[in-house]
């Protein structure tokens, strides 16, 4: 699933975020006077609709998708007719996975079936004319669920439109989409409560409006690590159905690159050496956002853990002069680079080491209108700054890779891995191999696979920013932000997996503090392109839904194990600032969990300081899972211990609940709250549903 991850995002496997086991308490319900309060709550609560954040992700300057520009139409039907397309693949994508799947379908439809296909970013088109969708054409929707069953930024407007009870098309008909034939695949995570909620709601809405699904809905599950396998299985069934209804004839697939590479010899100032946008390259003023990050100075970086083999960082970043602003509860995106070791490995394995500094000009072919990275650039810059070379290997891409294998052993192994999902999971997925590491493991004596770079550009995703919950209050730190991240490092049998972004930040921390990195750590070129960074890093701000009550007098409950505590540091800071200005503030209860009190108790001194200021307004309850071999304590147990006071706070005092951490932990916490609020006159699950509808139960989970 594509999702924003609080505390630390998208740089490492979710299962290694907190290191905390999970506890699911089972306990009997107690009948008390609060049962009546619960009944009253259900009967008279005024349900506020939590409006989706209006912030939109702007179109990427170097995104792969084809977008209308200038005077081009925003009517997708006109675009299809103008370009003689028979199939449109819409995508809603947050981090690139959904867009990648959509691009694969577009390319495969053309190369395998000679089907005239086009890709469409849902944010680039209007939908009021979909009632005129031609009956001899088809639409495919690839939709990621973001957060707790919400649409991605680029699909939010479409989602709101198509799921509305009062949807209006250009013609008033009972079943306005009766001419549309469609298929849908969702990207989700089963550890979330609303698994693949977006694609399910969209499919239901399309059918309610008269559209016909020509194949069953597909659902990818990132929680089980089977997302690509689910997609590959679904698309074969989908293609079989489409062959029948459109009378397609399958042909032998031929690789047709979407990009061409021309090597240049002359260097100039206009070459992108890691800059993310034209403004950064030329040093001209620009509005900073998701595709034009601001290079911000790191003010301070320090270690939070007291452990010899684990790291957790606190980073303060300067916003002065950036034009960026944030609100408490927002996220900061960090644009990392790949480590020196992995850059060298990739260039060496794919035969580019000797010409790493060669300037290349990249151009799009066919219907592709834009590029996966800026051009012109160099091989090294593309690999270091623009390509997700440490990301998971695509099983489908191994088929293309096998065509360039230098020997039969490598070729046959790649083909076997591409065809057998169980073998792939055992030998690749479970070991967290990246593409270059996989080639090294297959051919240890001669680890080389001379793949054309244009092929690699298609098979390796664009390097994505990593999102972190901001751990500072905008009232307290208007001109700077803080982030908190655990440094990901997992020892495998043959190698050590390291998170790209967290280790990038660790390298900056070492340099800033004059520290000697451990021998096992990955070195990074942190000076940036043309040595412009110098203790700085590219960032942008992303606004979130995770917000304190507007009424500061409302009490709040915060549950945040591990780095999930990051936004709650900001929440408490905010309440202190409000109290200092004379605002009445409500009680705050924080449940924090970690392994050991003396090793990873994050912000211990801060909590003591906040307690001294707030007094009884702030309570902290801790749970240490590895403090004692004989007793393991988890945050869910602490919730049970305080069930009476929690019920009173939520039902009597109209309190708010906030959960931040892993999706699995959040699900267990919700289950615990369901039991706590489950009274004879009040169903706990129904109460939580109403709390969520009123934005009084909020989750920021990975």
UniProtKB/TrEMBL annotation:
Binding site for FAD: 466-469, 484-486, 499-502, 702
Residue positions binding NADP(+): 310, 563, 625-626, 632-636, 668
Cofactor note: Binds 1 FAD per monomer. Binds 1 FMN per monomer.
Keyword Cell division attached: no
InterPro entries named among the record's database cross-references: CysJ-like_FAD-binding, FAD-bd_FR_type, Flavdoxin-like, Flavodoxin/NO_synth, Flavoprot_Pyr_Nucl_cyt_Rdtase, Flavoprotein-like_sf, FNR_nucleotide-bd, NADPH_Cyt_P450_Rdtase_alpha
Start and end residues of each FAD-binding FR-type domain: 291-536
Function according to Swiss-Prot or TrEMBL: This enzyme is required for electron transfer from NADP to cytochrome P450 in microsomes. It can also provide electron transfer to heme oxygenase and cytochrome B5. Involved in ergosterol biosynthesis.
Protein's recorded name: NADPH--cytochrome P450 reductase
Protein species of origin: Penicillium frequentans
């Amino acid at each position: 699933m594509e999702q924003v991850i609080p505390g630390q995002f998208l740089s490492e496997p979710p299962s290694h975020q907190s290191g905390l086991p999970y506890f699911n308490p089972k306990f009997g319900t107690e009948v008390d006077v609060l049962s009546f309060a619960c009944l009253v709550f259900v009967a008279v609560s005024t349900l506020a609709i939590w409006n989706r954040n209006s912030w939109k992700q702007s179109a990427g300057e170097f995104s792969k998708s084809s977008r209308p520009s200038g005077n081009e139409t925003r009517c997708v039907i006109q675009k299809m007719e103008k370009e003689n397309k028979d199939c449109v693949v819409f995508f809603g994508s947050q981090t690139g996975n959904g867009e990648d799947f959509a691009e694969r379908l577009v390319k495969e439809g053309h190369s395998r079936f000679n089907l005239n296909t086009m890709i469409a970013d849902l944010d680039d088109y209007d939908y009021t004319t979909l009632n005129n969708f031609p009956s001899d054409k088809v639409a495919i929707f690839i939709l990621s669920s973001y957060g707790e069953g919400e649409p991605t930024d680029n699909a939010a407007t479409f989602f709101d439109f198509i799921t509305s009870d009062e949807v209006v098309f250009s013609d008033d008909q009972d079943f306005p989409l009766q001419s549309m034939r469609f298929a849908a695949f969702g990207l989700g995570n089963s550890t979330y409560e609303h698994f693949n909620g977006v694609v399910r709601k969209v499919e239901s809405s399309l059918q309610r409006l008269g559209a016909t699904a020509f194949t069953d809905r597909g659902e990818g599950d990132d929680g089980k690590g089977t997302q690509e396998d689910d997609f590959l299985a679904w698309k074969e069934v989908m293609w079989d159905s489409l062959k029948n209804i459109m009378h397609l004839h399958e042909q032998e697939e031929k690789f047709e690159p979407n990009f061409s590479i021309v090597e240049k010899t002359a260097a100039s100032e206009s070459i992108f050496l890691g800059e993310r946008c034209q403004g950064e390259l030329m040093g001209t003023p620009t509005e900073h956002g998701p595709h034009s990050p601001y290079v911000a100075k790191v003010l301070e970086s320090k270690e939070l853990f007291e452990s010899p083999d684990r790291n957790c960082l606190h980073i303060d970043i300067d916003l002065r002069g950036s034009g960026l602003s944030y609100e408490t509860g927002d996220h900061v995106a960090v644009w990392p680079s790949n480590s020196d070791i992995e850059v060298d490995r990739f260039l060496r394995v794919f035969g580019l080491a000797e010409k790493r500094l060669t300037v290349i000009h990249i151009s799009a072919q066919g219907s592709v209108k834009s590029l996966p990275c800026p051009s012109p650039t160099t091989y090294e810059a593309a690999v270091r700054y623009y390509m997700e070379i440490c990301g998971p290997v695509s099983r489908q891409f191994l088929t293309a890779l096998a065509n360039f294998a230098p020997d039969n052993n490598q070729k046959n192994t790649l083909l076997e891995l591409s065809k057998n999902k169980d073998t792939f999971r055992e030998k690749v997925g479970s070991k967290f191999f990246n593409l270059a590491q996989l080639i090294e493991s297959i051919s240890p004596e001669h680890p080389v696979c001379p793949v054309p770079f244009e092929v690699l550009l298609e098979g390796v995703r664009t390097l994505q920013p990593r999102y972190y919950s901001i751990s500072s209050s905008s009232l307290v730190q208007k001109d700077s932000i803080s982030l908190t991240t655990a440094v990901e490092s997992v020892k495998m049998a043959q190698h050590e997996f390291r998170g790209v972004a967290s280790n990038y930040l660790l390298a900056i921390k070492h340099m800033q503090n004059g520290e000697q990195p451990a021998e096992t750590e990955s070195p990074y070129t942190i000076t940036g392109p043309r040595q412009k960074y110098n203790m700085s890093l590219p960032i942008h701000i992303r606004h979130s839904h995770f917000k304190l009550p507007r009424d500061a007098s409302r009490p709040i409950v915060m549950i945040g194990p591990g780095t999930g505590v990051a936004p709650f540091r900001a929440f408490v800071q905010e309440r202190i600032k409000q109290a200092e200005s004379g605002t009445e503030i409500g009680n705050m209860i924080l449940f924090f969990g970690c392994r050991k009190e003396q090793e990873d108790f994050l912000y211990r001194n801060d909590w003591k300081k906040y307690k001294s200021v707030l007094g009884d307004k702030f309570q902290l309850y801790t749970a240490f899972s590895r403090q004692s071999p004989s007793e393991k304590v988890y945050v869910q147990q602490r919730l049970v211990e305080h069930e009476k006071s929690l019920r009173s706070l939520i039902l009597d005092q109209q309190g708010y609940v906030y959960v931040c951490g892993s999706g699995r932990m959040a699900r267990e916490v919700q289950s615990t709250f369901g039991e706590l609020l489950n009274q004879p006159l009040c169903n706990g699950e129904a109460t939580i549903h109403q709390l969520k509808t009123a934005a009084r139960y909020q989750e920021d989970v990975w």
